[in-house]
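Checklist before submission:
- one chain only
- standard amino acids only
- sequence pasted in full

Submission:
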Amino acid sequence: MQLREDVSVVDTDYGKVLLDGISGEYWELNPTGGFVLTALLDGRPAEEIARTLCAEFEVAEDRATADVNGLLSALREARLVRS
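Returned file contents:
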């Protein structure tokens, strides 16, 4: 997965912010969402990312999987990424 060329990402003290250069809309991700985004951009599979979340935080695997897939779906719906 890759961000569109006109989408910028900035690290903040509270996670990451994505800015759509065409629409001017932005999305703020908390630190966990920022971690998931970085892992997706690095090409890691969603299942592996979910397992990492389970290992680092006390979260059930089904919840972690749903959260990772939810963020991926939201990024696709907002047309911020290209696969």
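Reviewer check: DSSP finds three helices and five strands in the chain.
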